[in-house]
Structures are given as C-alpha cells and as structure tokens.
Amino acid sequence: MTAWTGPYAPTLLAFEEAAGAFVDLVAQVRGDWDRPGLGVWDLRSLVGHTTRALVTVTTYLDRPATTEDLTSPAAYLVGSGSVDPGLVAGRGQQAGVDLGSEPAARVAEAAARALARVREADPEALVETVNGGMRVGTYLPTRTFELVVHTADVAAALGLDADVPPAALREAAALATQVVLEQGRGQDLLLTLTGRADWPADLVVIR
Predict the structure, then answer these.
(1) Mind listing the domains of the chain with CATH numbers?
(2) H/E run at residue 129
(3) pLDDT tier at 207 (50, 70, 90 boundaries)?
(4) Would the pTM count as exceeding 0.70?
C-alpha cells in the first residue's frame, strides 16, 4: 500500500502525469536530435536536462538526510536560481550525450525507475538534495515543475502544442506562483494577471 495518501496523493498524481506526458512527447521525436532546443541546448541536450528531473529523484532517494533545511518546494526553486547557468548548461549537454543511441527508450526507462521508487517511498522521509535536506513529498513538486516547463520547451522545439495533464499543470502553476510570492513580487503578478500592467521582464521563476 502506498504512503502517498491524504494530502500527498495529489503530489504523486501530478508527478505521474508530468512524467507520462514527457515520455509520450519524446517518443514522437523522429531522429532530428540536433535541431535547436532551448538557448544553448539542442533538442538532445534539452531532453537530457529534462530527464535529470527523473534521474535526480532516483538518486536522492538513496541519499537520506538528517536535517530538514528546506520546508517548501518554492524555497528549493528560489535557491536554485543562484546556480551557475554554465554549470546547468554543461550538465544538460552531458545528460543528452548519456541518452545514447535510443534517447526515447532511455527516457522511458528513467521515468519507469523514478515512478517505481517514488511509489514505494515515504513522502515524509528526509533526503539530501543539491540545495539541502528536504522531505520527499516536498521535493517531488519541484520535479513536476521542471517536467511540465521543459515538456513545453520540447514541444515548442518540435513545433507542437504541449499537452500537459491537468493535475501536473495545476501543481506547476501553483508552485510558480509560490516562487513569485517568495521573491516579493506578488503585487507585480496580481497587477499583470488582472490586466493592469504588462508582465515585467525580470519576473522569471526559472530560465
């Protein structure tokens, strides 16, 4: 029986939906892995970077933590904003290389491993992430967020509309809002969404 019940059930559902949507989209790629992806990344690197949202789940579940340093998904994403963009770009490029000759199959395998491990995990367990110790149930929405955002990026690179399931989209949108509030930009967000101001160019959750 899964421990992802009660308030944790929507968190697991959102991750399952996001992972499934990403796998289904990557399966539509027909060989042109060198086409432009996002920024400095070609499509292979973009897919590789996105796959890290699955791989890190599996990795961190094997790294128990003794302290809870971050108590919200928003705090994790705010902390990630200070990471060297060059380091992120390099990791994405290497992750793309690691996908090998059958990228879609490697993505599907990574998703299957991550989902199997998460379903068996205790959402209250503490794991050591790159930004500090977190509960699994707190960390997982950050992975859903990455999957949803970058699935949209992959779809754009392929000239397709992103088809993100509702639970995953709600999780990602809610987390983006929380990050904006953590950044002290709630007023800017409210004015923009109510048509009273243009979207500020510097109001960005991740790049």
Answers:
(1) 8-193 (1.20.120.450)
(2) strand 126-129
(3) low
(4) yes
pLDDT at residue 141 greater than cutoff 90 = yes
Evaluate whether 22 touches 183 at the Cβ level (below 8 Å): no
**Better-scored residue on pLDDT, 207 or 58:** 58
How far is it, in rounded angstroms, from Cα 138 to Cα 91? 24
List the structure tokens of 52.
Answer: 């890290």
- In angstroms, the Cα distances linking 178 to 78, 162, 171, 207 are 10, 23, 11, 16
> Measured between alpha carbons, how far is 162 from 142 in angstroms, rounded to an integer?
19
Asked if the model's pLDDT at residue 82 lies above 70, the reply is: no
pLDDT of residue 59: 97
Q: Quote the CA–CA distance of 134 and 130 in Å, as a whole number.
A: 10
| C-alpha separations of 181 from 2, 77, 132, 157 in Å | 32, 12, 21, 30
Task: For residue 2, give the amino acid letter.
Answer: T
